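Title: Prediction job returns without error message
Component: structure pipeline
Severity: low
Priority: P3
Assignee: unassigned

Description:
Job completed but the reporter wants confirmation the result is attached to the right record. Sequence as submitted:
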Amino acid sequence: MNGPEILFYIPIFGGLPVTETLRNTWIVMAILILLSLWLTSGMKMQGISKKQVVVEQGVKMLYQMVEDTMGKDKLFFAPYIGTLFLFVLFSNLMGMFAMRAPTADLNTTAGLILIYFMLNQYFAIKCHGLAGRLKGFVEPIPVMLPLNIVGEFSTPISMALRLFGNIASGIVITSLIYQALTWVSNLVFGGITAFPVFAVGIPAVLSIYFDVFTDVMQAYIVTMLTMVFLAMAMD
């Protein structure tokens, strides 16, 4: 599997490359913005539509999940958590439409986790003060200082690599399956037709796992980890 293709350059600062990742990220953001505008349009207090019922139930579930995971005092994180989940989910699912998933690029996952890391540090200092935050690095005993520092940085790095690795590996595995089935088709039907018979249908069944189940699970996992670690930093 190659890296994201460079589509064109923006002629500023010596030429800024626009890659598949950047283009597909713009598409995901546009979809989420348009979907949000459509779902929140025409809302009423009485005589509500089925669309509004679905939206309200989804928001209620989001806030309940944040409350159960982080605590009632941290409900203000709900908009961020909901946005993170939807962005990661829609980015992961781009592979179903023959487009490279933005989350299959380490730059994307690193950017997402960098936002989490900055929030983690800000709210940890806000809740415990700078002195309290620094004191946490030498607990339970001062000799733990190096390990605590390493752990502070290894957690976000592992989160970024986990999401990137799972989505990128799905692309690799799917590509290998297509190539293997095409080779088998040519071996069996090479003298009759060049059409890759075995490569039709079978990969579609496998993609239900790689492109749907795995994508949804990875979006859920990174969202849950973000909530858990943010809550731990603040408590």
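Comment from assignee: result matches the submitted record. The chain has one domain: 6-234.
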